[in-house]
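A reminder from the course coordinator: this example appears on the midterm review sheet, so study it carefully.

Given structure:
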């Protein structure tokens, strides 16, 4: 077994100079590549109305990934449950579980993954939908497992003795941690949202409040971090310019596809930008495989984790693949 299990979160990021569909096709090509490297899971995200992250239908992507892989677990990170009817989500994941038996992770979140106007378009009752999230999760547990619940079942039903989709609660606040603990479910903290701010408190709450369940007698936490490895530290920093620039622009309300690192380097940063950029770089998991590996090991040790989920953005698909390959080698995954 590897010293630390690694998984992947892919967000289907659109890149300047390519149509948005390219991002989805790149996700489909990345999944079997990461499977061959020995990664444990391959998760895809859900965002709406965003010109950068164009993966708006994780269940559709998961079906396509299931057809291209044989071993790796496939998951949503996650389905934004308040947008949808719970039974319909359960049916979608019963279909997925039939296509890839025993390999499906059903990650759900309460956040809208969009702006308010888009959330209302997805669900006209969105203003109060999040209040029902705990009950939705309870209903989803039963239906996705193939149980008869509230007089209904979600078809197709699993064969006797089959392992149903593994339900995960995703979040970046104490709310999700407490709900996961109450229901005895695995919990994934979105470390990369705020460079880990609040992660210690959330995981402490999760562990201290955890109520064992039949499937998960012990807490099962993980965190998702953004990381990029390259052959040299300088090249890693250069390739990370795309996401770095995107984060800076996002803080100013400017969104768009990921720019090339060459274009960003040519443009440069202003003196006003540099305090923010330097703060990002101090907390970034960017460097050689050995450097990033040391940072990831230290993070996992400090948080008591046996698994980390890695999210990597780069304008060129080959750069992302090389980063995942370097980290797989560093941690002995294959």
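Designed residues:
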């Amino acid at each position: 077994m590897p010293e630390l299990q690694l998984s992947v979160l892919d967000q289907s990021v659109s890149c300047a100079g390519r149509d948005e569909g390219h991002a989805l096709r790149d996700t489909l090509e990345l999944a079997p590549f990461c499977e061959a490297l020995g990664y444990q899971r391959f998760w895809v995200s859900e965002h709406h109305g965003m010109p950068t992250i164009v993966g708006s239908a994780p269940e559709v992507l998961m079906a396509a990934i299931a057809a291209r892989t044989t071993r790796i677990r496939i998951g949503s990170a996650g389905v934004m449950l308040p947008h949808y009817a719970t039974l319909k989500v359960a049916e979608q994941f019963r279909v997925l579980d039939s296509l890839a038996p025993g390999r499906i992770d059903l990650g759900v979140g309460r956040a809208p993954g969009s702006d308010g106007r888009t959330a209302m378009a997805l669900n006209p009752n969105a203003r109060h939908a999040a209040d029902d999230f705990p009950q939705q999760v309870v209903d989803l547990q039963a239906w996705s497992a193939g149980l008869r619940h509230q007089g209904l079942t979600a078809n197709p039903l699993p064969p006797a003795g089959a392992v149903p989709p593994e339900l995960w609660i995703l979040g970046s606040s104490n709310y999700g941690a407490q709900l996961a603990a109450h229901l005895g479910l695995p919990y994934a903290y979105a470390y990369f949202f705020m460079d880990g701010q609040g992660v210690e408190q959330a995981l402490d709450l999760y562990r201290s409040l955890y109520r064992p369940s039949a499937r998960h007698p012990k807490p099962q936490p993980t965190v998702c971090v953004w990381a990029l490895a390259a052959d040299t530290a300088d090249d890693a920093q250069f390739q990370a310019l795309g996401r770095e620039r995107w984060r800076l622009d996002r803080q100013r309300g400017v969104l768009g596809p990921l720019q090339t690192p060459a274009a960003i380097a040519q443009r440069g940063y202003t003196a006003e930008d540099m305090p923010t950029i330097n703060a990002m770089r101090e907390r970034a998991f960017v460097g050689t495989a050995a450097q990033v590996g040391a940072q990831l090991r230290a993070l996992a040790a400090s948080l008591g984790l046996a698994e980390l989920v890695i999210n990597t953005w780069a304008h060129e698909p080959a750069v992302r693949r090389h980063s995942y390959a370097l980290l797989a080698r560093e941690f002995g995954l294959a």
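The domain at 5-228+289-330 is CATH 3.20.20.30 (TIM Barrel). The beta strands are 5-10, 41-44, 73-80, 104-109, 166-171, 187-189, 221-230, 285-288, 307-311.
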